Amino acid sequence: MTKLLMILMVTGLLTGNAAAQYKNKQIIKSTMEHTQIHYRNVKVNGLNIFYRESGPIGAPTLLLLHGYPTSSHMFRNLIPILNARYHVIAPDLPGFGYSDAPDHKNFNYTFDNLASTAQGFIDELGLKRFAVYIFDYGSPVGLRLAMANPEKITGIISQNGNAYEEGLSKEWGPIQKYWKDQSQANRDALKDFVSEKATWFQYHEGVADASLIAPETYTLDQHFLDRPGNIEIQLDLVKDYRTNVALYPKFHEYFRKYQPKALLVWGNRDPYFLPAGAKAYLKDLPGAKLKFYDTGHFALETNASEIGAEILDFMAELPR
Predict the structure, then answer these.
(1) pLDDT digits (tens, 9 = 90+) for 233-245
(2) Is 104 assigned a catalytic role?
(3) 66, 87, 104, 297: which is the annotated catalytic residue?
(4) Tens-digit pLDDT profile for residues 253-287
(5) pTM of the entire predicted model
(6) Which residues have CB under 8 Å from 241's CB, separation 6+?
(7) Which of 28, 102, 127, 200 fits a disulfide with 107 by CB distance 3.0 to 4.6 angstroms?
(8) Cα–Cα distance between 110 and 241 in angstroms, integer?
(9) In sequence order, what DSSP letters do the residues of 272-299 get, joined into one string?
C-alpha cells in the first residue's frame, strides 16, 4: 500500500470502492512503468540498429538475439513474461527486421561482422553484465560475444542455438555442398531457401498444433526477405555459416574454461537443429539444465509461457 493511499484512508478522504479503485490504478501504473516495451534505434558503426527494450534499467539484463529469417519480433510474447523483473534488450541484426540492410556489395555479411555490430551495440548501450539468449543465427553471434567478453556474461540461454556438428540435420546438405564448391550454380540452387514456402516450412514443421502459429510471423519475415537485394544478403550469410562450424571447437573451449551457467530449451522437432545438438552441450557444460519441448524450430511460437517460466527460474539463480 502506498504512503499516499494510507494517508487518504486514515483521513477518511478515500473509503470503500474508491480506495480499491485507487489502489488498482496505482498497481497498474507501477506495473506499466516497468513493463512497457520501447522501440528504439541507435547508430552502430554507421548503421541504424533497431531494438526493443523493456523492464527496470537497474535490474539484471538479458540480451535476446534472434535467428534467421526473423527479427526481435520473435520475442514479442517472451518479453512481457520477463520484463517485470528483468531489463530485456532485443536488437535486430543488420540485414534483418527494422535495422539497416545495406547492399551486400557495400557491407560484408559475415558472422564476424554481425558479431562486430553486436559488440558495438552492447558498447554503445554500455552493457556491463548480462545474460544472453541465443537462437539459430543468434547463436554464433552470441557465442562470439561471450568469447570476447567473458567477464560480461552472467549466463547463456540456448533455444535451438546450435554449437555442435551433431546438431546439424540433413536439411543442411545443399548448404554444405555450397560450402565445398562455391559455384554460381550451387549458390543459385539455394535461392529457394528465402522463398515463402521455405519460410512457412520453418515455422510449421514439427509443430503439433498449427493454429498456434501467428500468421504475422512468417508474413513479416517474408516481407523483409523480399526486399530488393535481400536474397544476396542471405546467400552471403549462408555461405559464411561454415565459419561458425569451424569455430565450434573454440566455443567448446570457452564453455570448458569459463563454465557459464546455461539453460538449454529446445524444440525437439526442429528440422534444422537436432536434439543431439542440445545434448552435446552437456559434454562441456555438465551443469547445464536441458529441457525439450514437443515443437519445431520457433519454439517460442508454441511454448513461450513454459520457456518463459524456465528463464525466470534460471535468471533468479544468476550472479548480478
Answers:
(1) 999 999 999 999 9
(2) no
(3) 297
(4) 999 999 999 999 999 999 999 999 999 999 999 99
(5) 0.90
(6) 111, 140, 175, 179
(7) 102
(8) 8
(9) SB-HHHHHHHHHH-TT-EEEEESS-S-T
